[in-house]
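Researcher: Here's the sequence for the chain we discussed earlier.
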Amino acid sequence: MNPVANREAIDGVQRMHRGVHMALEELVNRGDAERAAEILQALDVEMVEWINATRKMR
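Model: Thanks. This is the structure I predict for it:
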C-alpha cells in the first residue's frame, strides 16, 4: 500500500490521531471514562463532517 495525501488530508488525520490519544489519556491515566467518551463523540462528529466534505469535492 502506497497512500498519497495532500497536506490538508495529513493534517486532518493527525488531528484525529491526537483526539484518540486525548481520549486514551483521559481513560487510562485519569480513569475518566465519561470525558473519554465526550472526546470520542466530538472526534466522531469531526470525522463525519470531514468525510462528507471530502465526498462533495470529488
